[in-house]
Amino acid sequence: MPTGVALRAVRAQLFDAAERVLLRDGPSGLTSRAVTTEADCAKGVLHRHFDDFDAFLAEFVLDRIEKLDEESLRKAVGTGTVVDNLAAALTAVFESVAVAIVPLVIFRDELRARLRREWPAGVPVLTQAAVMIAGYLKAERDAGRIGENADVDTLAATLIGATHLLFADRTGARPEAAQVRKTVAAVVGSGVRPARR
């Protein structure tokens, strides 16, 4: 098979199929056969492009981390309210495949070991989301919309943890927007300065 576009297309097809299986069936349903069946291709296709299934899963997780929408959050700095911007960004993270990746990483020891080689701390998707949130909070602090002594790294980690609890049950109802906003406001509320008029 030629390299380049064709390889990227196969990888994207397999990763998209893995996401659908993971969201529908959970980590225990995510097998190489389930992925190739969902992708409507022969099982050998996956093994032709990846050393084994855990190598595939590691690449899948890293690919999904890259899809976190950091650009939209950066563009939100100085606009709207800090609480609304954070609530929207956190909802986007946890309504994506991110919430399903957490139990997948916990579920598979070999996957966790492979990810540790490139991601030394935390659960990769949550750690990257915390980095994204901390960057936004730092920019808002620099803009004077958050207290100058705000510990943005601790706030970001707390926001990720608190919001993850709202979204953790993949089979339950999604939290309402007001509930997410209330959680964000409780975490950052005292550090947010009122909008200037």
Descriptive account of the structure:
Keywords: DNA-binding, Membrane, Transcription, Transcription regulation, Transmembrane, Transmembrane helix. This is AcrR family transcriptional regulator. One of its GO terms (molecular function) is DNA-binding transcription factor activity. It comes from Amycolatopsis umgeniensis. The protein is mostly helical and about 200 residues long. It has 2 domains: about 5-50, Arc Repressor Mutant, subunit A (Orthogonal Bundle), CATH 1.10.10; about 65-190, Orthogonal Bundle (Tetracycline Repressor, domain 2), CATH 1.10.357. It contains 11 helices and no strands. It has helices spanning about 5-25, 30-40, 45-50, 55-65, 70-75, 80-95, 100-105, 110-120, 125-140, 150-165, 175-190. The longest helix has 21 residues, at about 5-25. It is elongated, with a radius of gyration of 19 Å. It starts with a helix and ends in a 9-residue tail after the last helix. The relative contact order is 0.12.
